[in-house]
Specification:
Layout: H1 4-17, H2 22-25, E1 32-39, E2 46-52, E3 55-59, H3 62-92, H4 99-127
Antiparallel strand pairs: 1-2, 2-3
């Protein structure tokens, strides 16, 4: 989330659904590019559609937004796990290997993995808030 449109989408979500996860989102490489408000003219039901990377996701309230974002982060984690597996395969099958390349790739994968996990952890607090008292 680096550009103005993504920032505007985040601010809208933050204000509308009282969800705060900007610090976790920063540097995550999730490309949030659009949010659309939809209203059923017959029933009056409202929903939203948000574009993340090249996919569109629907939600209608804070809980469904959080669940949707957790799902997106879980998909990203699976992609990173696949990428790490492919990196390991490449290392095993190579006679010559650039250790600096390996280090930077592992650092990037680890950083993003941590970012997605922190987003999930933060959003889970909105789905299952700890009751005080």
């Amino acid at each position: 989330m680096e550009d103005d449109e993504a920032n505007d989408v985040y601010e809208f979500i933050s204000q509308k659904f009282k969800v705060s996860f900007k610090s976790q989102l920063k540097g995550s490489k999730l490309k949030i590019s659009k949010i659309v408000h939809q209203k059923d003219l017959i029933t009056g039901e409202e929903s939203y559609q948000m574009k993340i990377d090249k996919s569109a996701y629907n939600f209608d309230n804070r809980e469904s937004f959080c669940k949707m974002m957790i799902y997106v982060c879980q998909l990203k984690i699976k992609e990173l796990e696949k990428e790490e597996y492919e990196l390991n395969e490449e290392i095993q099958n190579s006679r010559f290997w650039d250790e600096n390349y390996e280090f930077t790739q592992r650092e990037r994968i680890g950083f993003l993995f941590g970012k997605y996990q922190s987003i999930i952890k933060r959003l889970e607090t909105y789905i299952n808030p700890i009751k005080k008292g």
